[in-house]
Amino acid sequence: MTTSTAIDSQRACAELEQLDALGCMGWGLAQFGDGFALTTSFGIQAAVSLHLISQLERSVPVIWVDTGYLPPETYHYAETLIDRLGLQVHVAQSQLSPARMEALHGRLWETGRIEDLETYHRLRKVEPLDRALEQLGVRCWASGVRGRQTDHRSTMQPLAQVRGRWALRPLLAWTNKDVYYYMQEHDLPQHPLFEQGYSTVGDWHSSAPDDGGISGRATRFGGLKQECGIHLPGMAGEGI
Hints:
This protein is of the alpha/beta class. It has one domain (9-223): Rossmann fold (3-Layer(aba) Sandwich). Helices cover 35% and strands 11% of the residues. The chain contains seven helices and six strands, in the order H-H-E-H-E-H-E-H-H-E-E-E-H. It has helices at 9-16, 21-32, 46-54, 72-85, 98-105, 114-135, 176-185; strands spanning 36-40, 61-65, 88-92, 140-142, 159-162, 165-168. Strands 3-2-1-4-6-5 form a six-stranded mixed sheet. The relative contact order is 0.19. The model is unreliable at 235-240 (pLDDT under 50).
């Protein structure tokens, strides 16, 4: 089902580029009202977009894509931020439990095959998110993606169509320093794994700390992929 709203994307992007991150979030709420949401995985830098959404004049649903394989530290961090920011969270999970998926498909992240990783991401991330967006009637979803994270994200625009809905990227131009200073300014807690050298974290089995030679998204998915499919236009094939 396509739920996109008729918008001149070129004009909208030009307008969004003149706004700060909070202004972009406010734009999304003004344009889409009840059809606006934020997605998160409660990762290393998630506190920024979650804090921004909490500053809006009305509550905006936060869709948490929970694969069932997140590190224990992420689940504790999520509880901390939910309580502190008063977030309205909707958990998006696969219809297959981790045990059932492994019984039917094996431990897809261990094979070293990109095709198996894509199946894993489709089952545990893309399909659960798209189902939640449909159930909540979301026409535009904001995320915390930044242009410097991956090659694909460096080509992104502030607003674009993704699988029949508008995707808004308020932090697209932000640097790591911007994230750090924002969190300092607003006294936001760091993810517990940050101090262990992680600059990004997803599932426990596909995340690793920076080691001096490899950092950022290159530490994810065993180096096979940078994206999990969520931010890609097709059903198969990026992360929050």
